[in-house]
Amino acid sequence: MIGVFVLKYVFGIRELDNMYSGVLRPGSLIVIAGHPGSGKTTFAITISYSNALNGLKTLYITLQEDKFKLYSVMKDLGIYLEEVERKGLFKFVNIPISLDIKNSIDWINRLIEEYKPHIVVIDSINALLTGVEEKDQRAWLQNFFYGLLQREKGLTILIAELPYGYDRLKLGSIEFVADAIFVLKHSIEGSTLVRTIEVRKVRGSPSTLVEFPFAILTGVGLKVYPPPYLEEIPIEGEEILVPFRILREKGCHHIHKGFVIYYAQPPDARSRLPYVILLGFLIYHGMKALVITYNYPESMVKTFILGILTRSGLSREICEKFIDENIVVKAINPYAYSISQIYAIELNMVEREINRSKIDFIVFDDVGVISTRGFNYLIHLANQLLIFKKYGLIVLRIGSIVDDFNYRANSLVSDIVFKYHYGMGGEIFGARLHFWRRGMFNPTILSQDEMNSLVEELNEMLREKISLKQ
């Protein structure tokens, strides 16, 4: 008999525990449904294993799974069932599918009575319901599952198979009495396999999020990627003086923490200026930055930044030390993930570096690679930027101009826009920089000479501030 103390169950997945922990109460019934190979068993085992690590016992009853194969697959995901089994916290039982329904139910009852689990997993309910034709017998079976651990105040998890091409459950009254129903799906987005969890029902949860991607990762297990979402628009942070005299004279005296800066440029004429601007802020204000790159490896970005710094005349050793102390570079392959996954991965990176490195700036280079992925991209981007504003972070987004929609969409969510042109300007061939800040009546233009002065000002800051530190 489970003790009278109140049990606390977990999903074992941080994001789900944050959103839906209220549904895992003693006596709850959870349904995990999905197509074959969608990750249902992995999800159920993740819950079981995570609670076993907290000292709660799971009885895992299957009519289909091979024990050796299951334990081996789970071990690859960082789930060590043999260890918790040795401690008496996990019991695997395979019921012969040849048993009739009455004998199967009797067997399950005996196992529960002998083992006294806190969690019972049935994998899958379809196998038990197959062949049960009589309406009264089927209703009795459904009522049995609902009351399975009610008397013991435990947690019941039922796994249900959905045929390919169907997303309707046919579990009768079980769907009505279930406290939560999670449906696992997979589809193709471009050339990427995208797994999603649809939350069809969750009692006691205020969350309005109904679908989000997930992945099954070696050594990690099941990882979910809820899109960043913020219900309230945060206010902007404190004023930060713009360190470049020429920009102050052009009408941009200061920015605020939480500002978004967008630097747009032709894909065949990419400028070093966005990193010059970034380095000016870092050096003048003693800030730190996280650079997330989509197109280049981390080492190449650091080499590029090093080239800008060493032009000031400072030694390579001093410049490398500055980079190591003030800039963190991370690379993401944008073609390996969905948009929701990319933004969730980025948010995790940012939160980690806020705690570890105390960053003030986030740089995204090159956003043109992912900003062509439709309206869904813009929705996720807007929510992500609101979260960064809440954290008081300054965001610099560097992007190639792929098309007019791409440029306007990125400008729409930005507080400052730089647009770099290279080519004929009237009768003169050269570069110019279109510049606009929120609050300005009209945009302005920086000439090639004025852009060169940004580089000169950066070099002066480097020689003055970094040399003084040395």
TrEMBL record:
Cite the entry's keywords alphabetically.
ATP-binding, Nucleotide-binding
SUPFAM superfamilies in the record: P-loop containing nucleoside triphosphate hydrolases
Q: Kindly list the GO molecular function terms attached to this UniProt entry.
A: ATP binding
At the top level, the lineage of the source is Archaea
Q: Which Gene3D superfamilies match?
A: P-loop containing nucleotide triphosphate hydrolases (3.40.50.300)
In the UniProt record, does the keyword ATP-binding occur? yes
For this UniProt entry, which segments traverse the membrane? none
Which intervals of the chain form a coiled coil?
none
Q: Which residues form the KaiC domain?
A: 7-238
Q: Would the keyword Nucleotide-binding turn up in this protein's UniProt record? A: yes
What's this protein's name?
KaiC domain-containing protein
Question: Which source organism does the UniProt entry give?
Answer: Staphylothermus marinus
